[in-house]
Amino acid sequence: MSSVKMEDFVSLLAQLSSTDVRRFRAAVKCPSPMNCLNVTLRPPFLESHLSNSYTIQSISRVVNQKILKASSSSQAIISSFNYTVVQRNLTGDGHARKVIMDIESLYQAVVGDNSSHLETKWAESIASTLRIDIRRIKKPSVARGIIYNFTVTLPFEEEPALSAEEITLMLLESTKYGELTLLGEKGQPVNISPLTYDNLVELQVIKETNALVIVLSIVISTTLVIFLLFLSGAVLVKIRTDRVIEEVNFSSNLNKLACQLMIL
């Protein structure tokens, strides 16, 4: 099967299964003598797209009901159809991520004089494409260049546990395959440079800061304890001194009273 025929075959499969052809990527013919075709089905990136599970069901219907054979001029016959779930390689570090995106356009032409509106607009577009909660994207900012920065936070308790690491990898893939669309201030599409791993910055908690806080806490606590001990000691000394003075005064008063009695 030539590359042209593969493209025609994939296009027909997309049409019959009501799937956006852009979701089929990396079509490769299996090595000889195997007569098969490997295609990667991308996750949905538009609101109108069905999930991968429903798309697989639609493709399976096309294959099992021989719809593809009846619609194909090449008389291609599919004897079997199977799929495997592609898992992303994740480290599972549990940290947030900062994303740095390069926009290949002039700042004034794209951003204009209202950068804050565009920052929010792009965050909403990214959240919609990746199908994540908009609250996961924090502190979006547009700098001259054009560089669009934002932070992907950790998952909330009430939503599926989709890590910031996996979200940023999904974003990397969407820029690689041209699935992400960002519009300028005047509604024109902007050119997005495909993300690389260098554009994804892991945000780690600085351990030295925690150690410094612990040391400061220990120093302050020790100083407070020493001060309290010193204050307690001073109070005790004061009490003992007062008692001694009272005893001396009492003895002096008794001596005076005895002298007075003897004189009388």
TrEMBL record:
Positions of transmembrane segments: 211-237
Keyword field: Membrane, Transmembrane, Transmembrane helix
Highest taxon listed in the record's lineage: Eukaryota
Name recorded for this polypeptide: SEA domain-containing protein
